[in-house]
């Protein structure tokens, strides 16, 4: 059984997509990031970056003690190796999937995330910042579009963890101020992933949590006001502001 510490964000959806595709039993432990659940001591014990998703594998392949994994890319690799699915075993195929997985975790995710922040959440609309991240997101869509030309999936003919990593970050293309039709290969691939039964099931698992109210001002302070000092203690509070 996999215990998944989760909230319905793009990074959270990556993991439910894998688990549903692989048919691996799991249970969701919600981590309400707007309420500060990511700072609870029991969560920080195995997710020290105070971010979800994270997992606890109660039945690791070696039969030993439970294994914890944090960071969505690392979780995808761990689960792929555990199940023998969605990550080729040949050196060239594996290399390609890992390249595109790291492309997502190092590029598409962070750039689209900044796009979301400055376009939606930032208290001050900064034209330069908005333009910077909208344009960089657009560039990355172009990279992905060229990669998908003549390919069913990112790494070739087979679905892989690279597709599961990238798809949730394309779902919010409208709020990223992108035109999906301008990237025909991405649009074709996107529709094919969206139509998969496992994708439907994965996103349905997040619906009870996605129905939460809009992020409050207090929630924004938790999400966007973190630094080394104010995340040093449980609950994201220092000794001076525990009230």
Automatic annotation (TrEMBL):
Residue span(s) of domain GST N-terminal: 1-87
Domain GST C-terminal per the UniProt entry, residue ranges: 90-214
Superkingdom as given in the UniProt entry: Bacteria
A Pfam match: GST_C
Protein name: Thiol:disulfide oxidoreductase
Organism (species): Rhizobium daejeonense
């Amino acid at each position: 059984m996999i215990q998944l510490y989760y909230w319905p964000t793009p990074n959270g959806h990556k993991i439910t997509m894998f688990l549903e595709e692989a048919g691996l039993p799991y249970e969701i432990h919600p981590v309400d990031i707007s309420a500060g659940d990511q700072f609870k001591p029991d969560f920080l014990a195995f997710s020290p970056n105070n971010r979800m998703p994270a997992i606890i594998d109660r039945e690791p392949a070696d039969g030993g003690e439970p294994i914890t994994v944090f960071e969505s890319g690392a979780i995808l690799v761990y689960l792929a190796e555990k199940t023998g699915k969605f990550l080729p075993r040949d050196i060239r195929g594996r290399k390609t999937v890992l390249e595109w997985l790291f492309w997502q975790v190092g590029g598409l995710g962070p750039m689209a995330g900044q796009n979301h922040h400055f376009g939606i959440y930032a208290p001050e609309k900064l034209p330069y910042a908005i333009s910077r991240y909208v344009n960089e997101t657009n560039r990355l869509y172009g990279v992905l579009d060229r990669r998908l030309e003549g390919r069913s999936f990112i790494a070739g003919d087979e679905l892989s963890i690279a597709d599961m990593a990238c798809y949730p970050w394309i779902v919010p293309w409208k709020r990223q101020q992108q035109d999906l039709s301008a990237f025909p290969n991405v649009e074709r691939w996107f529709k094919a992933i969206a139509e998969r039964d496992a994708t439907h099931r994965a996103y349905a698992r997040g619906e009870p949590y996605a129905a939460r109210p809009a992020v409050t001002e207090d929630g924004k302070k938790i999400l966007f006001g973190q630094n080394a000092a104010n995340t040093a203690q449980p609950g994201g509070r220092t000794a001076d502001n525990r009230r």
